[in-house]
C-alpha cells in the first residue's frame, strides 16, 4: 500500500506543477519572420482564460536593451511602452506593426500592470532577394570550384596517361636494345 500511495502523491504533485499558474500570460507567435513592407501581428492572452477587462489592460513594449545582471541572475531590460500610432496598433492584447522595416526587427514583450511575468516575442525581418543573391553567389562559387576540381582531375589523368605511355615506350626501347645485344 505504501508504494502505491507515494506514486499517487507524486502524480498529484506533477499535476499541480503542470497546471498553468493563475495569471500566466502567453503570446502567439513567439517568433515571427516577415519581409519589409509586410505587417506583423502578435497576440497576447491570459492562459487562464481572459476576462475582457484584463485583456484590455495588456500593454506591449519594445525591448531596447538587455544586460545580464549576473549578481541576481536576472536580465536587466530596458523597454519602451508602445502606443497607438500610424505604424503600431495595440488593441486588447493584439499588437500590429504595419509596413515593417528592418528597424522594427527585435524583441518585444507583453505585460500587464500586475506582477504576472512578461512574455517576450521576436520579430525577424528578412529580405528574400538578398537570399537569392547570396544563394546565387554561393552556387556560382561552388560551380567554379567544381570546374577547377574537374579540370585538375582531367589534367592529372592526362599527365598520368602520358607518363604511362612514356614508361612503356622506354621499356620497349630497352627490350629492343636488349634483344639486339642477344643476337
Ligand atoms: C476581470 O478582471 C478585472 C481586472 O483584473 C477584475 O477587476 C474583474 O473582477 C474581473 N472580472 C471577472 C468576471 O472575473
Ligand atoms: C539594473 O537595473 C537597475 C534599476 O532597475 C539599475 O539600478 C542597475 O544599475 C541595472 N544593472 C545593470 C547591470 O544594468
Ligand atoms: C488603439 O486604437 C484602437 C482602435 O484602432 C483602440 O481600440 C485601442 O484601444 C487603442 N489602444 C490604445 C492602447 O489606446
Ligand atoms: C512603407 O514604408 C516605406 C518605407 O518606410 C514607404 O516608402 C512606403 O510608402 C510605406 N508603405 C505604406 C503602404 O505605408
Kindly report the spatial arrangement of strands forming the biggest sheet. 2-9-8-4-5
Structural class computed from helices and strand pairing: alpha+beta
Identify every distinct bound molecule in the structure, by name, code or SMILES: 2-acetamido-2-deoxy-beta-D-glucopyranose
Multimerization status: single chain
Say how many strands there are.
Answer: 9
Contiguous helical run count:
3
> How many discrete structural domains?
2
Question: What's the CATH topology name of the largest domain?
Answer: Immunoglobulin-like
Notes on the structure:
With 183 residues, this protein is α+β, with helices and mostly antiparallel strands. The chain folds into 2 domains: 25-126, Immunoglobulins (Immunoglobulin-like, Sandwich), CATH 2.60.40; 128-183. It contains 3 helices and 9 strands. The radius of gyration is 35 Å and the shape is rod-shaped. The termini are far apart. Mean pLDDT is 83; it is low at 16-21. Residues 37, 99, 101 line the site of one 2-acetamido-2-deoxy-beta-D-glucopyranose (NAG). Residues 20-120 form the Ig-like domain. Residues 1-23 form the signal peptide. InterPro entries: Ig-like_dom, Ig-like_dom_sf, Ig-like_fold, Ig_V-set.
Describe the secondary-structure layout.
Layout (H helix, E strand, L loop, with lengths): L1 H17 L6 E4 L2 E4 L5 E7 L5 H5 L2 E11 L4 E8 L6 E4 L2 E4 L8 E6 L7 E7 L2 H55 L1
Parallel strand pairs: 2-9
Antiparallel strand pairs: 1-3, 3-7, 4-5, 4-8, 6-7, 8-9
The protein binds 2-acetamido-2-deoxy-beta-D-glucopyranose (NAG) (4 copies).
One 2-acetamido-2-deoxy-beta-D-glucopyranose binds next to loops.
Amino acid at each position: 500500500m505504501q508504494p502505491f500511495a507515494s506514486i499517487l502523491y507524486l502524480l498529484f504533485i506533477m499535476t499541480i506543477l503542470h497546471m498553468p499558474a493563475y495569471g500566466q500570460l502567453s503570446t502567439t507567435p513567439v517568433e515571427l519572420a516577415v519581409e519589409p513592407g509586410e505587417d506583423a501581428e502578435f497576440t497576447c492572452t491570459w492562459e487562464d482564460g481572459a476576462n475582457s477587462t484584463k485583456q484590455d489592460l495588456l500593454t506591449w513594449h519594445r525591448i531596447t536593451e538587455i544586460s545580464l545582471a549576473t549578481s541576481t541572475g536576472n536580465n536587466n531590460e530596458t523597454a519602451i511602452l508602445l502606443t497607438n500610432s500610424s505604424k503600431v496598433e495595440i488593441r486588447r492584447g493584439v499588437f500590429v506593426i504595419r509596413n515593417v522595416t528592418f528597424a522594427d526587427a527585435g524583441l518585444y514583450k507583453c505585460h500587464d500592470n500586475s506582477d504576472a511575468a512578461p512574455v517576450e516575442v521576436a520579430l525577424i525581418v528578412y529580405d528574400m532577394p538578398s537570399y537569392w543573391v547570396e544563394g546565387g553567389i554561393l552556387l556560382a562559387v561552388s560551380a567554379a570550384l567544381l570546374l577547377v576540381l574537374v579540370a585538375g582531375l582531367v589534367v592529372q589523368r592526362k599527365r598520368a596517361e602520358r607518363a604511362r605511355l612514356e614508361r612503356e615506350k622506354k621499356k620497349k626501347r630497352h627490350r629492343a636494345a636488349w634483344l639486339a645485344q642477344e643476337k
